[in-house]
Amino acid sequence: MTAQPVVADPVGTGLLRDPGRFAREVLEPIRKVVGERGLITDRGAMQPHMVAWRDNWAGRVPAVVLPADTAQMAAVMTICAATRTPVVPQGGNTGLTGGGQPHADDSEIVLSTARMNRIRGMDLDNDTITVDAGVVLQVIQEAAAEAGRLFPLSLGAEGSCQIGGNLSTNAGGLQAIRYGTARGLVLGLEVVLPDGRVWDGLRGLRKDNAGYDLKQLFIGAEGTLGIITGATLRLLPRPEATVTAFLATPSPRHAVAWLRRAKAALGETITTMELMERRCLEIAAKHSPRVQDPLAQAYPWYLLAELSGQGTEEDLAARLLRVLEEGLEAAELLDGTVAASAEQAAALWRIREGTPEGQRLEGASFKHDVSVPVSQVDRFIAEADAALTRRFPGIRSFAFGHLGDGNIHYNPVQAEGEPAAEWAARLPEVNRIVHDIVASLGGSITAEHGIGRLRLEEVGRYKAPVEIEMMARLKQCFDPMNLMNPGKMLPPAALHRMP
Predict the structure, then answer these.
(1) CA separation for the pair 499, 469 (Å, rounded)
(2) CB-hemisphere CA count at 13 Å for 156?
(3) Mean pLDDT of the 169-194 span
(4) Using one digit for the tens of pLDDT, what is the confidence trace for 279-338?
(5) Interhelix angle for 278-287 vs 342-362, to 10°?
(6) Which of 361, 392, 415 is at the close of a domain?
(7) pLDDT of residue 492
(8) Could you tell me where the beta strands, DSSP code E, fall in 5-117?
(9) Statement to judge: residues 273 and 343 lie in one domain
(10) What is the arrangement of strands in the sheet containing 186-192, beginning at the earlier edge strand?
(11) DSSP-assigned beta bridge partners for residue 227
(12) CB within 10 Å: which end of the chain, N or C, has fewer?
């Protein structure tokens, strides 16, 4: 592909501003490719594709296109490239930063992978599964389980999110401490490029040193370089035993110390290590009668730990108990309980699962999906709490997340009983305080949710100019007309500066 200057305003032909020409030159050719089922132009029917399930992101487009397979997606993208029609790739529409929502000015069309939902094949000798981009994550998990395997990517939205969206945002989730993020679970991709050509990289190889690892360019790119249409994914042995524990700890510093001890003794059996402060449990229980405190008294911080592996649950639980006893003796832990049944384990998980919903019902909150080195988690939370309390008296700390990979959802909540609107107006200043601390500790302002539109204005402050330039040059190379998900991930100024 020849590098050309990125066009900042891709609607050069004005087709989207001329409904008659747009219908003749874009919609009718697309209709011939995808049929009536694959084209939605009714405003009401398009609405589920326009609105985010959280954070009030909303858009308006003249059409939503739902190709049934890769050939149709490529043909549609060819039409869009020829007519310079910008597109917004969309999977399950479960994102949290506005990356999958179109803008509200009829300046784009949505390309949805919802109809591309086939499991193409499974190779158990190679431990791989190949799927369309629109397959729901839970369907992949269930297919793997039926074959005696595990696909370990696990998210709260796994019943509705699609694998193409998971890969486009490099989803992390609850088991990244053991299995890594989505990036590490992909062996091959199929991608429709901005000009309509198809790159078939669906190779199930664990070793392939013949050139650049091109698939990694599209994982985490949020649909700005091309549209993922298929993926070959790694499968792993299905664990025979699982043990879940809910542990009390004095502080994040003590939690990190016990995690270090646990990793040395338990190794890769540690599947999940979730950290949450007391207020998370209290607010979750306040808004859901199904959430209950499993311990006899209150403690400042908690860990939800899950182990899995081969062998028996009795053996796994015995290994965990030895490390728990060592943690209690070292004062890294204060108390704890180990689930004795699947029902008890589910009750412990309801605390973690009820935390985001309880927070939503509590009032205005300031959501930060950040990561710092695990060694800096305690310092980050302490410094952020102190800085916000000084600036906004009454603000309530609210921190939880994936301790094992340093990804903390740091979501302070408004002062109790005060108007939510007044607190919501303070978001920019809260963001600046929190993100400056994250940057000072060598962290990232978005650990797993992506940049999208939510962090678009901030990313230029926290990434070095050379890094922004490299990202812009990749965009320039693959998408010189800026047709793919424009106005996401890259600050507009970065594209304007390109020679």
Answers:
(1) 11
(2) 15
(3) 96
(4) 999 999 999 999 999 999 999 999 999 999 999 999 999 999 999 999 999 999 999 999
(5) 90
(6) 361
(7) 78
(8) 39-40, 64-65, 87-90, 109-112
(9) yes
(10) 119-123, 128-132, 227-234, 186-192, 198-201
(11) 192
(12) C
What phi and psi values does residue 464 have, to the nearest 5 degrees? -65, 150
- Give the domain extent around 383: 363-449
Classify residue 6: in a domain, yes or no.
no
C-alpha count within 13 angstroms, C-beta hemisphere, residue 210:
5
Strands 149-150 and 241-249: unpaired
The CATH number of residue 73's host domain is 3.30.43.10
154: closest CA among 308, 283, 22? 308
Q: Is residue 7 part of a domain?
A: no
Contact 154, 173 (CB under 8 A): yes
The pLDDT, as a whole number, for residue 18 is 87
Percentages of the chain per state (helix, strand, coil), in multiples of 5? 40, 20, 40
**Taking a C-beta distance cutoff of 8 angstroms, is the pair 177, 272 a contact?**
yes
Residue 258 maps to a domain: yes
Q: Is residue 456 part of a domain?
A: no
Asked if residue 1 lies in contact with residue 477, where contact means CB atoms within 8 angstroms, the answer is yes
Query: Which among 361, 381, 406 is the end of a domain?
Result: 361
- 44 burial class (0-12, 13-18, 19+ CB within 10 angstroms)? exposed
What is the share, in percent, of the chain residues with pLDDT greater than 90? 91
Range of weakest confidence among 49-58, 139-148, 327-336, 360-369: 49-58
Give the burial class of 498: count Cβ atoms within 10 A of its Cβ; 0-12 exposed, 13-18 middle, 19 or more buried: middle
Whichever domain contains 147, its CATH number is 3.30.465.10
Q: Can you tell me the distance from the alpha carbon of 12 to that of 10, in angstroms, rounded to the nearest whole number?
A: 5
Co-location of 92 and 19 in the same domain: yes
DSSP 404: G
| Domain co-membership, 233 together with 243 | no
pLDDT digit string, tens, across residues 6-61: 544 444 456 788 889 999 999 999 999 999 999 999 999 999 999 987 767 889 99
**Domains held by the chain: number:** 4
DSSP 452-489: TTTTHHHHHHHS-HHHHHHHHHHHHHH-TT--BSTTSS
CB half-sphere exposure, 483, CA atoms < 13 A: 29
d(CA 428, CA 450): 18
Rounded to whole angstroms, the Cα distance separating 258 from 247 reads 11
Pairing state between β 109-112 and 128-132: unpaired
376 and 435 share a domain? yes
- Is there a single domain that holds both residue 129 and residue 222? yes
